[in-house]
Amino acid sequence: MISSAEQKMQFLYSLRSSGVTNKRVLTAMETIDRRSYVSDTFADNAYEDTPLPIGCGQTISQPSIVAIMTEALDVQPRDKVLEIGTGSGYQAAILSRLARRIYTVDRHSILVQAARNVFKEQDIPNITTFTADGSRGLPDQAPFDRIIVTAASEDPPTTLLDQLRLGGIMVLPVGQSDSMQRLVKIKKTENGLEYHELRSVRFVPLLEGLGKTSV
Ligand code: SAH
To answer: In terms of pTM, does the model score above 0.85?
Structure first.
């Protein structure tokens, strides 16, 4: 078995190999310990560049994809960010190091509760969690400077685009759940929406309504 220091070195290496160079993003990912966001069952796998099960049939994303999405979101220190798909809370925790305030939404209350507990344990003060159908966004808190969706939809949800501030950026996987999805970055400009396709990815689907409470 390799030591934890060695595991962490490999973790950082896999982030750099994914092509992410933004210093703020790399520092945030070095600071937030992925081990805190996976269950004891997967403790040995916490620093591997793979998705891992988190319950409710969901997964914590692969670290290199988290890094790529975070870099693409181009978060600024004063930003108000909306994340759809809290899952383990790992992506939200990384964003919390980079932006002023994070609102994160998941349809599974069990996952939201678990993530909220970790944020408390880790003394992360600037994340607000919600159990809700995130495809509706959070109209009461809108507009947002940045929106990140960590579950795939066939098209970018217009409700979410409406909640993005002018000049804002949204990053999300687009495509059918069991086929090839593309990671897309959308910028809202005065002349309309600018789309950039980043790479192919595989995410769980964005589903409507709330999740069942049983795991
Ligand atoms: N960002 C997470 C990984 C997300 S996995 C992390 O860092 O661990 C995708 C998550 O999207 C799942 O937890 C799933 O429950 C959630 N999800 C799917 N459809 C949703 C919807 N309509 N509203 C809110 N959350 C949704």
So the answer is: yes
